[in-house]
Amino acid sequence: MAWGDSSDEEEGSEEEEEGTVALMAKSEYDSDEKSSDSLIELKNKVSSLNKQKLKEYLLILMDECDALHTENYDLNNECDELKKVVLQLKKENKHLEDEKIELDMNNLVLLEDFERTKEILKLKEECFVTNFTKLEKESLDLKEKLESLLVENQNLHEKLKQVEQE
Length: 166
Prior knowledge:
This protein is mostly helical. 87% of the residues lie in helices and 0% in strands.
């Protein structure tokens, strides 16, 4: 039930009216402490209103208070939910940062392994080139020796033929 739904039968005494005026004046004073003139203005405005008008304004004010209270409650709930989301996101962020650190460390190890492997391959390539060069030279030497032996073999065959003919 809204504040404005009360019946006209409920009329208060003059003390209630003064209390209402004081309450409205105090509320205005609390919200605007910089201007003491506004308090006097409000008191003068309220004094010139009749009881029914004051009652209507009070009910409107109470309805607005309820609406603001409800909105404030909803905003607080939404804020609490957002705080939970932020907390969850912070946890996820921390987890992702830890994962990134672990991946960076793994990448560093892999990079070191890769560099060592490159170095080993370079050394093996140098060894291969050296061995290949030696083998080429050896092969050329053997080829020359083979040619020499073939020539010598040919010569020996010729001598053998000569010896057989004699």
